[in-house]
Structure formats: structure tokens, C-alpha cells
Amino acid sequence: MKRLMTHQAIFDMNQAFKRAKFSGKISSLFRYAMHKNIETTQKEVDSMIDAFPPDEEYCKYRTDLREIAKAYGIDHIDNPREFDLKLKALSPDQGAEFTKQQTDLADKYKDAIERQRAIDAELDAFLKEKIEIDLSMVTADTCPEISGDEGALIYDHMFPMFIPVKENETIKDIVSYEYK
């Protein structure tokens, strides 16, 4: 069944399929629909990735930044929260030294950073665009219970594959859960 979804929703659905850990028996109908939907959404995700490759010079900047960060015991530059925690744990002298090296590196790769920001802006706009995607549909009651802390979020992202019983039905109408 064709559904109108944003590229972001397709990406989120694909990731939800990959992260879902089910408890209990999984029906063959649900298993088949999920398999078909993983294939369908993965093709879209691959196209998105191919359409917006990162700037090569920007990748060099990130590699150089990782090397500088590693020298200071900062190993997670892609996770802003962990990065900030590690940066705050440095002595004031080390923090200033790291910040100086980081600034110098950013100045060296200024053009690449700007090009990457432009790519990121295009990608953000693209992710908001809607397209029709052909999903294998099942009723919500065929979905087995999803275990783990992300269960409610995964259900939300999988919702477009469920056949609505009534018009304007939402995930909250068919699956009872609470956010923690």
C-alpha cells in the first residue's frame, strides 16, 4: 500500500526495523511484511546517503580533529554530550590548548566546513520532503511486543506499516504504552 511519508520518517522507520528486539512469537505475516519494508526503506536510505555525500576535505578535517581529541583523551567527537563532558574534565590549561588547536584546525578547513554546512542544509530540507513509498501493511495486532527502553519510540516509527482500522487513527489509539 502506498503511503505518503517524509524522507526523515522513512529513515526513522528503517532504523526502527533494525533496532527492534521482539519478545514472544513473531507471526510469519509480520515477519514477511517487516522483511519487505526493510528492503524498501533501505533502498531509500541508500539513495539518500548517495545523494548527499560528505565533502572530502571535511572528512579530512574530522579525521584530524579526532587525532587532536584523542591526544587529550577525548574519544567521542561525534557525540556532543560526551564531547562536552570530556572537554570539561580537562585541566584549564589543557582545555585552552585543545580549544586553540581545534580553532586553528577549523580555520585551516574553513571552506570545507562551509561546504559541508551547505550540504547539511540541503539534506535537512530534503528530509522534510514527502514521497510516496510502497509498504507491506499488517494490522497492529500482528506486531509482537518490542522489548527494551526504546519500545514506544520504535512502535511510533513502525506505525505507517500498520493498517488503520478507522480514519485518522494514531499509534496511541492502537498501542497502549507510556513514555518513561
Give an overview in words:
With 180 residues, the chain is mostly helical. It has one domain. The chain has helices spanning 7-19, 28-51, 56-71, 80-89, 92-108, 110-128, 151-158, 171-174, and strands spanning 2-6, 22-23, 130-134, 145-146. It is elongated and about 60 Å long. The strands form two sheets. Strands 1-3 form a two-stranded antiparallel ribbon. The protein has a two-stranded antiparallel sheet with strand order 2-4. It has eight helices and four strands. Helix content is 62%, strand content 8%. The two termini are 33 Å apart.
Class per helix and strand makeup: mainly alpha
- Count of DSSP-assigned helices: 8
Taken as a percent bin, the fraction of beta residues is 5-15%
Mean pLDDT: 88
Distance between the termini: 33 Å
Q: How many structural domains does the protein architecture include?
A: 1
Report the biggest beta sheet as strand number plus sense, adding barrel if it closes: 2 strands, antiparallel
Globally, the shape reads elongated
Radius of gyration: 21 Å
Strand order of the largest sheet: 1-3
Helix share of residues? 55-70%
N-to-C SSE series?
Answer: EHEHHHHHEEHH
> Got a strand count?
4
Low-confidence stretches: 174-180
